[in-house]
Each structure stands twice: as structure tokens, then as C-alpha cells.
From TrEMBL:
One example GO MF annotation: oxidoreductase activity, acting on the CH-OH group of donors, NAD or NADP as acceptor
Stretches assigned to the D-isomer specific 2-hydroxyacid dehydrogenase catalytic domain: 167-462
InterPro entries, A to Z: D-iso_2-hydroxyacid_DH_PdxB, D-isomer_2_OHA_DH_cat_dom, D-isomer_DH_CS, D-isomer_DH_NAD-bd, NAD(P)-bd_dom_sf
Name the UniProt record assigns to this protein: Hydroxyacid dehydrogenase
Coiled-coil region(s): none
PANTHER family for this protein: D-ISOMER SPECIFIC 2-HYDROXYACID DEHYDROGENASE CATALYTIC DOMAIN-CONTAINING PROTEIN-RELATED, D-ISOMER SPECIFIC 2-HYDROXYACID DEHYDROGENASE FAMILY PROTEIN (AFU_ORTHOLOGUE AFUA_1G13630)
Segments forming domain D-isomer specific 2-hydroxyacid dehydrogenase NAD-binding: 251-431
Length: 464
């Protein structure tokens, strides 16, 4: 589709609105039609829109190429309302679109017609599928908001961060040392980080800062009281990695229980070639269904893991570190009972005063000698010095750690003094990090900021 003379008549408008409705794929709120023609009559949007996978990216890239792009679109929305109304009227008369009430709102629905496909209009409809008119207008009207991303690499270089750029003026750093934070956020209205420590030393005197967003659920690296007292909102992301962490929990456990390293080596070393047996059982493994699976922390992730444990036939019991999670779905026990009776213990709790060093030497020694321990919560929940000590004494059948007291590990970290590394599997804090989960994380931060700019609160954690 090429519009070389910008001729705006009802027939052309009707075709554009019809194809937009086809691309939208569901009833279109009537008010949304007001922005269709202003966008598609704009040469820059029309020429490049097929290159974009999100509306936010399209708006951002157009603004980079045309200084007053947003203002131009805002002005033409009002100018083109009459043309839009006429085109919708023609569409109704010609039985190209019908209008019906859906969820108390008048909406347009595409009917069968021989109008040719206009790919740009269809694609614009697809880009608007999850964008409300209010969200779009917020993007257009948002000016002069300075957003600083301190740790973009913490969510990976393979995820799409471009939609953040549509929210304001964005300065992005792959990583930021603690000593660099303050200098980089002077004048920022919004800061996005992951693990940087945002304490009083960093935040004091920053008059512009209104919001700190985290690429994370945990907030222990932010001084929430200081932020509350100084009018700085803090927003985290929730539930973006629940299934991913549960999946990694199972992967760590199965790696240990099934003795996969030993059996893999047996085959790859060609020892299997010289064996007289078609099966080799020298490394004993067990059915999970014969075990009791203890869960520490029955939040969203803990519940997801409990569902996996139940599906595998294990007896499930849990200990609530906060005392707030109670359910009749699984047996709740005290911590000592959990330690003494569980064959598997998986940790899914946050790090706080109640959970710091919850698994100290005394607790670890109360566990069965044959038990497996998996930590995908936070490193400080297990006292690593004590863990290494009991492991080296032959206590515990296996340990899987995705989180550590020091991240990244130190060169001389106590973890490296474990004598039998075949009893452990160590991963670098990746349980949350499938590419799908990381993109969900970024999208959630975007939604948090968008809500904040609209005067709404979303995932704010420091209101009290």
C-alpha cells in the first residue's frame, strides 16, 4: 500500500479501518478507530510499520527519525476524527463493518467482503491487540521523563527492551558498579535496576527520583523505608518466573537423584562398551514417589513445585517461613519436623530476618543423611560454611544450588572446598532466566512504569 498524494476520502478510510479491524482479530472499541487514520496517513509509519513487532517500538523509532512525531500524531487525531466518522458510516452502510456492544462498549466487527488486504493496516491492528487507547495516548503525551536503566545485561542481551524507550528519555547501561550508581542517576525520574544496592548513601538528595523499578521480585537490596519517607515509589515484578523456577528446581533434583553424571560418563568413556551387562546399576537411584518432599516457602513458586511433587507421587509437606501461608492441599509441619522427615527439601523463600541462615549447621545435621537439598530461593538462607562442612563429613546425598551468599562466587569461595563435587550441582542464579521469563520480566517493568505515569499504582511494595 502506497499513499503518494495523501488523498483522504471515505472509501480509502473505510478500507484502512476495515483492514485494521481484520488485523485486530476481535471486536475493536469504537474509540480506538480515532488513531488509525492519523497513523496510517503518516508517511513514516506507513513505510516502516511492517518492520516492527510492537507498537511501542514503532512509536519510539518514528520519534527518533522525526523530532515532532508524537505532537504531529496528537494534532492529526483531532483533525481526522470527522474523516474517521464518515469512513465508519460508509463501512456500516456497505456492510463491511457491523457495530455491537461488547463488555458495555460499542465495538466494530469485520464482515466478509472483497476489499483487498492492506498489509500495513492489518499489521497495525495486530500491534494494537494488547494496547488500549489510554495506554497509546500516554505514550504520545509522555515527554521529558528521564529513565535510567542500570543493569540491562541482568535480563540478558537477547530480550527486547525497546518498549521501555517509548516511555521517555532512556539512558541504558549494561551494568553499573556500586560506586557508579549515584553519578548515573542524578536527574533521573525513574531508575530500573536488578541487584544494585539502593540505600540512603545512593539516594540521598535526589530530588527528581520518583520511582525505582526492579527487574526482580526480591526487594532486599532497596532501602524501602528511606524510599517511603522521601516519596520514592518502589515496584517489583511478580509471578513472571514461577513456572521457570519450578522447572529448574526439578532439573536440579533429577540431575542428582538419577545420578546422570555418573551414568553419562560410563557411556561416553566407553566403559559401557566393555560391560557384559546391558544395564549398569552401580550408582543406586530411587523413585521420587517413594520419598517425602518438603517445601520451604509456599508462595507461588512453592505451590508450583508442590504440584510437580504431587504429580510425581511424592508425599508433600511444607514449612511456611512467614507463618502466613496456610492450605489444606498439603500437610503443614514445623521446621524441625520438615528437617527430620523429608527425603527432599527445596527452598523457595525470600531472604529476610526470619530466613537468614535458616539452614545453619544445627539444621543441616537434623536432615536425613540420605536427603537432597535444593536452594532456588536466596543464597543467605543456607549457611554455606556449615553446608560444606557437613557435606565433607558425608552428610546429605546431594545438594543443588542456584543461589549463593556471594554472587558471583569469590575466587576462594568456600563452595569450592566441597570435596566430592559429584554430590552437588551448581548453576549461576539462572532458575528464573528462561528467555520467555526474562521477556515477561521486562514487559512487567514496562507495565509498572506505564501505570505510574498514568497516576496508577502497580506492584508498589513500599506504601507502608
Amino acid at each position: 500500500m502506497k499513499l503518494v498524494d495523501r488523498m483522504k476520502d471515505e472509501e480509502l478510510g473505510t478500507a484502512l479501518l476495515y483492514n485494521f479491524t481484520k488485523g485486530y482479530g476481535k471486536p475493536v472499541p469504537l474509540e480506538l478507530y480515532d488513531v488509525v487514520l492519523p497513523l496510517l496517513y503518516h508517511d513514516l509509519v506507513r513505510d516502516q510499520i511492517l518492520s516492527y513487532t510492537s507498537l511501542q517500538e514503532c512509536i519510539y523509532q518514528c520519534e527518533q527519525q522525526e523530532k515532532h512525531f508524537k505532537q504531529h500524531i496528537l494534532e492529526t487525531i483531532d483533525d481526522d476524527k470527522t474523516m474517521t466518522s464518515k469512513a465508519l458510516g460508509v463501512a456500516m452502510i456497505q456492510h463491511i463493518l457491523k457495530f455491537e456492544i461488547v463488555d458495555n462498549a460499542m465495538c466494530g466487527v469485520a464482515l466478509s467482503t472483497d476489499i483487498l488486504d492492506l498489509n500495513e493496516a492489518i499489521h497495525l491492528g495486530k500491534l494494537f491487540q494488547d494496547v488500549s487507547l489510554e495506554d497509546f495516548m500516554t505514550l504520545l503525551r509522555q515527554e521529558d521523563v528521564h529513565i535510567v536503566v542500570l543493569q540491562s545485561a541482568s535480563v540478558g542481551k537477547d530480550v527486547d527492551l525497546s518498549k521501555l524507550c517509548s516511555l521517555g528519555q532512556v539512558t541504558m547501561y549494561e551494568d553499573t558498579k556500586q560506586s557508579e550508581i549515584r553519578g548515573r542517576i542524578l536527574g533521573a525520574d525513574i531508575v530500573i535496576t536488578n541487584k544494585n544496592v539502593m540505600n540512603q548513601d545512593v539516594l540521598e538528595g535526589l530530588k527528581h527520583l520518583k520511582l525505582i523499578c526492579l527487574f526482580a521480585t526480591g526487594t532486599n537490596n532497596v532501602d524501602l523505608k528511606y524510599c517511603h519517607d522521601h516519596g520514592i515509589k518502589v515496584a517489583n515484578v511478580k509471578d513472571y518466573s514461577t513456572t521457570t523456577v519450578a522447572q529448574h528446581t526439578l532439573a536440579l533434583l533429577m540431575h542428582l537423584i538419577e545420578k546422570n553424571v555418573a551414568y553419562d560418563h560410563f557411556v561416553k568413556s566407553k566403559a559401557y562398551c566393555h560391560s557384559e551387562r546391558f544395564s549398569y546399576f552401580d550408582d543406586v537411584f530411587h523413585d521420587v514417589s517413594s520419598m517425602t518432599w518438603g517445601i520451604v516457602g509456599l508462595g507461588h513458586i512453592g505451590r508450583a513445585v508442590a504440584g510437580i511433587a504431587k504429580a510425581m507421587g511424592a508425599k508433600v509437606q511444607y514449612y511456611s517461613t512467614s507463618g502466613k501461608n496456610a492450605t489444606s492441599d498439603y500437610q503443614q509441619v514445623d521446621f524441625e519436623t520438615l528437617l527430620k522427615t523429608s527425603d527432599i527439601i527445596t527452598i523457595h523463600a525470600p531472604l529476610n530476618e526470619q530466613t537468614h541462615y535458616l539452614f545453619d549447621e544445627e539444621a543441616l545435621r537434623k536432615m536425613k543423611k540420605t536427603a537432597y537439598l535444593i536452594n532456588v530461593g536466596r543464597g543467605g538462607i543456607i549457611e554455606e560454611k556449615a553446608l560444606v562442612k557437613v557435606l565433607n563429613e558425608g552428610h546429605l546425598a546431594g545438594v543443588g544450588l542456584d543461589v549463593f551468599e556471594h554472587e558471583p562466587l569469590l575466587e576462594d569461595d568456600v563452595i569450592y572446598s566441597i570435596q566430592d563435587m559429584d554430590k552437588v550441582i551448581l548453576t549461576p542464579h539462572i532458575a528464573w532466566g528462561s528467555i520467555e521469563a526474562r521477556q515477561r520480566c521486562v514487559n512487567e517493568v514496562y507495565e509498572n512504569i506505564l501505570s505510574f505515569l498514568k497516576g496508577e499504582e502497580r506492584n508498589i511494595v513500599n506504601n507502608e
